[in-house]
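Private note to self, pasted from the team thread so I don't lose it. Backbone tokens:
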């Protein structure tokens, strides 16, 4: 079991560094968009297209409609797409099909949100939400990040240890060392 733990920590730390590298890359690319002469709302939508977490915060802060925010959430962000493609690289997914599916998902998510807001007569409260978010000094997700990160890391390590342990037992057809 301890070998499984060592392998799990090693591979998960390597994957974590790679995922963070994608986030840093996308953040760097998006920072170039700040030089474009675009409105805050358009920049917020562009930010959500690149990086979903901070992008959705920016859309709320800048009063972007809920349907557009739902479309961005459904799309998932280019950063997430790069991470998914990295994780599935051995499967060699069809990139055009993947992008088409994500764009279709975004379109459907936005349309469903728009129609539900229309059917249930939910007023567009983008301005009220933007005002509420403007009162925060920092993103509300910032305060929970260390605790959430530690909990996520611990659960990921336990999951990977168990997965590696089960895989070893399955491949060899024997029981592995139990601690």
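Design output:
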């Amino acid at each position: 079991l301890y070998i499984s733990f060592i392998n799990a920590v090693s591979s998960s730390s390597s994957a974590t560094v790679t995922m963070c590298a994608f986030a840093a890359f996308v953040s760097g690319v998006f920072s170039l968009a700040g030089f474009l002469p675009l409105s805050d709302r358009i920049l917020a939508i562009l930010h959500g297209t690149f990086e979903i977490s901070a992008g959705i915060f920016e859309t709320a802060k800048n009063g972007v409609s809920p349907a557009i925010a739902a479309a961005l959430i459904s799309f998932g962000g280019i950063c997430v797409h790069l991470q998914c493609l990295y994780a599935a690289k051995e499967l060699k997914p069809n990139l055009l099909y993947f992008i088409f599916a994500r764009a279709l998902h975004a379109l459907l998510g936005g349309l469903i949100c728009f129609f539900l807001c229309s059917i249930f007569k939910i007023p567009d409260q983008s301005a009220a939400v933007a005002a509420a978010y403007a009162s925060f000094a920092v993103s509300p997700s910032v305060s929970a990040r260390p605790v959430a990160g530690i909990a996520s890391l611990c659960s990921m390590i336990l999951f990977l240890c168990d997965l590696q342990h089960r895989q070893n037992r399955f491949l060899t057809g024997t029981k592995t060392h139990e601690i």
